[in-house]
Amino acid sequence: MIKDRLTPAQHAALWDDFRGGSQEAFSQLYELFAADLYRYGYNLVRNKQLVEDCLHELYLHLHTKRSQLGPTDNIRFYLYRSLRRRLTDALTKLNKFDSDDYAFDNAEFLIQPYESDLIEQQTLERRKQIVVAELNKLPKRQKEILYLVYMKGLTYQQAADVMEITMKSVYNTINVALTTLRSYIKETMLREGLFVGILLLALFSYFINF
Amino acid sequence: MDYSLFKEEDFCEDTAFIHWVISPTEESNQFWTSFLKKYPHKMKEMERASEFIKTIHFQEFEPSQDDLSRLKQRIWEDIETPVRRLNPWTRLAYWSAAAVALLVMAAGIFWWTLQPTTYQTAYGEIRKITLADGSIVTLNASTKLIVANDLNTESVREVWIEGEAYFDIAKRNGAKFIVHTPEAQVEVLGTEFNVCTRRKSTKVVLHEGKVKLQAPHTQAVVMKPGDMATVSDKDQYIQLKIVTPKNYDSWKESIVVLDDRPVSEIVQMLEDTYGIPIQFENPLLLNKKLTGRLSLKSSDEFVENLATILETEVEKTEKGYFFK
Predict the structure, then answer these.
(1) What SS3 class is residue A27?
(2) Is residue B100, in this structure, part of any structural domain at all?
(3) Is B60 within the bounds of a domain?
(4) How far is A191 from chain B (nearest CA, A)?
(5) What is the CATH number of the domain that holds B236?
(6) B221, B161: one domain
(7) Partner residue opposite A30 with nearest CB, options B47, B57, B72
């Protein structure tokens, strides 16, 4: 989950301090966001060396170009976008990709079953496991969208910007996720309904036979 | 954005809501707490949406502290020209890192305390909780209690409950204490009472002091010690009955006191407490009224004793108990 709990105003203030030349603010940018960028990067390329190289470049770039950077009130979004671009470029250099394609062959966004703190019926747990399994079947690119929106709290627009795709693709993916959930709920209800139906039928035929 | 019209799915899609679930801030906490106060009936939908959002939880590789400090050193080495002495800077970086870590920790703790607290008991579990204002709440099995975070400062202390609990409210300079149930609200100053909100109705038994009970379509009723009030959210009036209060909160000691209560009521109570369905071959037994005391410590024992009293046999089936 997200480690920093800064409000947009605090993001903007920290970013402005940093742009104004504060070394402490720069150091905070590292302490607050490096680990999280590392996680995102590793999920994309599964290669520690590559992630570290890109982060190294990214922070150096921030430090030297700070006076030329624009304002932001969501540093995470800003940094995610820069890191992802750097990783794409690095991979393109390595493999000569079509820049249009999803460059991250090794990406692995895996949704893990999450232990609920609600102690409800076990059926809820089972239901969730099935939803998780369904979501894991989605293409990597779509899972990356879910990762950015539901795990990292980016808005649809920001997620679209980071991945350099259209808002429409983000909307569609979110809809796929919700449909998965919805169809599963429906299915469970249907199955329960079917059970009652079969039971009634069995009773009915029993009486007919007599 | 008119959140009062939102359904579960709308919450799932709303980035402001998502952001609050995965990373609450002071601002968002304030916003959603006051929203819930205004629309308490949205709680279920918001809860389910938040469950769904949390379900989408990705596996992440956790960089080690070594990885991070090695990387940091590499960056800082390249930033710093060798002319500017390296040592004091590293020390400064360490100090600021420590300060930031401390700051982040303090902020985290601060925000954590602002979160409303939720307590939930499992089937068969009874738990006693002391709230921040000194009030003591005993939760019966399968009960959920949400406590506002500001019991010590706000002039109105508020909690939300689903299930059954016994409240011993501490007096605090005339600050009201309100227990919200799905069907009604109980308003008190300082007193002891039992609230049971199961099967779509709320039952309040007053032990001591004075409470005011209110439901959406009824006039408020002021209860006296020994009163038992029953109301559902569709009722036009609140039903009052004089009872022996201690018979209604004996569950705290895991004892059921039966004072001429029908078997059907006991069966309901048992299903609520243990979540085990009970069936009767002879439905007439359900109308039988019983008097006496039974221990609730173990469901097997309780059911066997009940069978003995009813002069019948009981069988433990895969799903529950079957009285012959």
Answers:
(1) helix
(2) yes
(3) no
(4) 19
(5) 2.60.120.1440
(6) yes
(7) B72
DSSP B58: B
Report how far residue B4's alpha carbon sits from residue B105's, in angstroms, rounded to the nearest whole number: 34
Can you tell me whether residue A106 is helix, strand or coil? Answer: coil
pLDDT tens, per residue, chain B with 324 residues: 788 888 888 888 898 999 888 888 888 889 999 999 999 888 888 888 888 888 888 888 888 888 999 999 989 988 875 444 446 677 788 888 888 888 888 888 877 766 778 888 888 788 888 888 888 899 988 898 988 877 777 778 888 898 899 998 887 777 788 898 888 888 886 788 888 888 788 889 998 888 888 888 888 888 888 889 988 877 778 888 888 888 888 888 888 887 788 888 888 887 887 777 888 888 888 888 888 888 877 778 888 888 888 888 888 887 788 888
Q: Are B92 and B159 in a shared domain?
A: no
Distance CA B186, CA B4 (A): 24
Query: What domain range is B31 assigned to?
Result: 3-55
Residue B69 sits in the same domain as residue B144? no
Q: Which domains does chain A have, with CATH numbers?
A: 8-95 (1.10.1740.10), 122-209 (1.10.10.10)
Find chain A residues with C-beta within 8 A of B107's C-beta.
5
Name chain B contacts of A149, Cβ cutoff 8 Å.
Answer: 15, 18
Nearest CA in chain A to B76: A60
The domain tally of chain B equals 4
Task: Examine residue B124 and state whether it is found in any structural domain, yes or no.
Answer: no
Q: Is B61 on the interface with A (CB under 8 A)?
A: yes
The residue out of B191, B216, B247 marking a domain boundary is: B247
Q: Which residue of A has its CA nearest to B94?
A: A27
Neighbours of B173 (CB within 10 A): 5
3-state secondary structure at position B25:
coil
Pair B294, B305: CB distance under 8 Å: yes
In a domain, residue B17? The reply is yes
Cα(B9)–Cα(A182) distance, integer angstroms: 9
Which residues in chain B are closer than 8 Å to A132, comparing Cβ atoms?
A: 55
